[in-house]
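Per your request, structure below.
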């Protein structure tokens, strides 16, 4: 029998998940097809597409604002398409230009099936939020970005979740506005503009986590967990107790992969062969990315290629 039931979109699912105030959405960082497949296989019900990981895996470059709209959109589309029933929150950096660029980014992400996205107040020559020396756009330019994002969300009819990120805690605009209170004010304005959630970047300690939640009530707040960054490590359960409604772990896939690759390549260089512990073989490797399902699909429609 054919089933034509309308599938529930990632954005709708993410909104459902956010509608329960006792829950925290947990999203591990993914940056390519393999990391997405591996995270999905662990049963996560939300994923986070890291811009830092996209920059490193697609461009081989550090997180310094080198990725363009096209790089980020292509990666987000691919990741969101692997299992469309699992919502993907994707990094959208500064929105990649002025208000019409921001609107274009929101609509393109929404069409690609991205469930949620964050837009920040750094200048185009941005950097990872946990590095020093961040420069911000003015409050006015930031507010325009967010108004553009909300208007594009509404025009798209997709319900894509717009998350306002501020880097003001560890950054400044050209007039010297920055710091904790500036970050709170910027996010309060963001909430008034109509964004769906807030992202207070580079919280400095556990006390500040509580203060952020106290000062920004009645709207979901996201916690960015970057071990070794500015914020101390807080577990998913602790984040939930403090009142964060989303927690992302952007760098964890990269932190796992880089040492593993270094170990493997250096072993080849030193010993002239692959390390003994590499035993998966092509069948098991490709199974990570759906080998059997793909072959079964082919056969189910009469294909003979993989029988
Ligand atoms: C969340 C973030 O924007 C990302 O690209 O994943 C980064 C993470 C990182 O570079 O450590 C950020 O916090 O700026």
């Amino acid at each position: 029998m054919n089933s034509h039931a309308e599938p529930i979109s990632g954005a709708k699912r993410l909104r459902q998940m956010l509608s329960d105030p006792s829950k925290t959405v947990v999203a591990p960082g993914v940056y390519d097809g393999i990391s997405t497949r591996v995270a999905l296989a662990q049963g996560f019900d939300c994923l986070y597409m890291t811009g830092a990981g996209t920059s490193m895996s697609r461009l081989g470059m550090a997180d310094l604002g080198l990725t363009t709209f096209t790089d980020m959109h292509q990666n987000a589309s691919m990741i969101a398409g692997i299992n469309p029933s699992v919502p993907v929150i994707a990094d959208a950096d500064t929105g990649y230009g002025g208000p019409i660029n921001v609107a274009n980014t929101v609509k393109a992400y929404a069409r690609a099936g991205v469930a949620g996205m964050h837009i920040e107040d750094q200048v185009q020559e941005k950097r990872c939020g946990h590095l020093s020396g961040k420069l911000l756009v003015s409050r006015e330019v930031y507010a325009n970005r967010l108004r553009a994002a909300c208007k594009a969300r509404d025009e798209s009819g997709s319900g894509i979740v717009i998350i306002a990120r501020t880097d003001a805690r560890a950054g400044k605009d050209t007039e010297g506005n920055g710091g904790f209170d500036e970050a709170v004010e910027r996010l309060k304005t963001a909430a008034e503009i109509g964004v769906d959630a807030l992202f207070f970047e580079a919280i400095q300690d556990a006390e500040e986590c509580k203060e952020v939640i106290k000062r920004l009530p009645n709207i979901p707040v996201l916690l960015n967990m970057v071990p070794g960054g500015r914020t101390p490590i807080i577990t998913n359960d602790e984040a939930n107790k403090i009142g964060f409604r989303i927690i992302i772990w952007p760098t964890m896939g990269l932190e796992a992969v880089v040492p593993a690759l270094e170990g493997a390549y250096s072993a080849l260089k030193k010993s002239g062969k692959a390390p003994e512990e590499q035993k998966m073989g092509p069948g098991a490797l490709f199974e990570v990315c759906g080998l059997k399902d793909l072959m079964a699909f082919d056969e189910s429609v009469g294909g003979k290629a993989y029988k």
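The radius of gyration is 20 Å.

Regards,
D.
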